[in-house]
Amino acid sequence: QYNEGKFIMNIPVENDINIINMGEKGPNLLSVSRAKALIAELNYDECKAVILMGNEKVFSAGLNLKDLMSAKDPKEVSLIFGTLRDLLVSFREFPGPVISIVGGHAIAGGCLIALASDYRYGMFGMHRMGLNEMAIGIDLPPDMLSIISHSIGRENLFEVATQCKMYSPKQAYKKGLINEYIGNPFIGKKRATSEALKRAKKLASFYINAGAPFTRLKQSLMHDTDFDYEILISNWFSSETQAKVKKVMSTLAKK
Q1: How far apart are CA 105 and CA 177, in angstroms?
Q2: How many CA atoms lie within 13 A of 246 on its CB side?
């Protein structure tokens, strides 16, 4: 169990499967410390599969905008975006299966880490899933776009990546953000999450048993792309982007 200042993560291990609960409550923001803690858990010598989940309200709300807004030095902003990229790469390069259970809001970076997983379970509810980078003027670099395009079909890719729509679980399933949808509203959120976890464990065990062929197949599905992250950092400090982010933060403060 991690208990570092602002976040707590529970990580039991079952049959070579790390079951990472990013937080029993709260927005599960991807701070640098949380992202690094997640990366540290992706150790194939210690586990052969990873199941990632949040709480009943939030899977992950992405990066902490307050951290970004308080960062005055480009190096600080570079560290925040760079650590998110490292986390996404770690998911993609982990030799075993990475499975996400999205039972709450998965926004921006939270949506990206779900999409960087190999398989995603979703369930009924009022939560939403989507990418809002364009709304606040933040770039989606090619390496992040490749993660999105790996999961989202060509017919939906442009909409999902650029229109900042927040999809209901059923809509997310139809668009490809979710692979498997548990849509029974009568069993309750806890039972639905329990069912998703049961399915995820079974799927993880299947891929663990597949062994090296699965690892080779996963590696062959990856895409290598280059992007100058200085462009992203420079754009973050532009007056237009700063104004958009302040507007979003003002709206969130009223809720």
Answers
A1: 13
A2: 8
The pLDDT score that the predictor gives to residue 46 is 94
Q: Would you give the DSSP letter of residue 133?
A: G
Q: Is the pLDDT of residue 14 over 70?
A: yes
Full 3-state SS string of 205-242: HHHHHHCHHHHHHHHHCCCCCCCCHHHHHHHHCCHHHH
pLDDT of residue 6: 64
How far apart are the C-alpha atoms of 125 and 61, rounded to whole Å? 16
Q: Distance between the two ends of the chain, CA-based, in angstroms? A: 31
C-alpha to C-alpha distance for 129 and 107, rounded to whole angstroms: 6
Pair type for strands 129-130 and 105-107:
parallel
At which residue do the structure tokens 């597949």 appear?
Answer: 210
Average pLDDT over residues 13-26: 94
DSSP state of 184: -
Neighbours of 106 (CB within 10 A): 34
Q: What is the DSSP string of 74-130?
A: HHHHHHHHHHHHHHHHHHHH-SS-EEEEE-SEEETHHHHHHHHSSEEEEE-SS--EE
Q: What is the pLDDT of residues 32-41, one digit of tens each?
A: 999 999 999 9
> Do residues 169 and 129 touch, judged by C-beta distance below 8 A?
yes
Statement: the pTM of the whole predicted model exceeds 0.85: yes
